[in-house]
Design goal:
Radius of gyration: 25 Å
Number of helices: 4
Strand content: 25-35%
Bound molecules: zinc ion
Strand order of the largest sheet: 5-6-7-8
């Protein structure tokens, strides 16, 4: 028996069909790093909502109107009076900064709803979801 055969044993079912292979720990540890790149990747996990930044924005709220909790997606008609209390979320908080730029993802159509808070008014922009191209994911779709 060659060294190769000692490291690798092919497994067959009772009908002689190849069902898998058993390899030694030593061989596995040497080929694992190369194989891992070939295995299908799990879809990237969604980032947690940046609630802390939203809390900070509310804390330093210096606009001429109360904190606004309503979100409306013009693309699909999805809307809420208070996104914070929706369970599950109708809109996910994607980003938020102290300048008053707050971005949501519409959980219905994946569109982006951007609320810009100015001193005296709020403007809202809705943009369609554009899938992010990823080499790893391309083969899966
Ligand atoms: Zn939508």
């Amino acid at each position: 028996m060659s060294n190769h055969d000692d490291n690798l044993t092919e497994l067959y079912d009772k009908d002689g069909n190849l069902i898998g292979a058993l390899i030694t720990a030593q061989l596995w540890s040497s080929i694992k790093p190369r194989i891992m790149d070939l295995l299908p990747k799990e879809a990237p996990k969604e980032k947690p909502e940046p609630i802390g930044e939203w809390e900070t924005l509310k804390q330093y709220w210096d606009f001429a109107y109360p904190v606004d909790m309503d979100v409306h997606c013009e693309l699909c008609g999805n809307k809420t009076e208070n996104w914070e209390t929706d369970e599950p979320r109708k809109f996910r908080l994607m980003s938020c900064n102290l300048g008053g730029l707050v971005t949501f993802k519409c959980m219905h159509c994946q569109g982006r709803v951007t609320k810009k808070h100015f001193k005296d008014e709020i403007t809202v922009e809705c943009t369609e979801y554009v899938p992010e191209k990823s080499k790893h994911l391309e083969a899966r779709y």
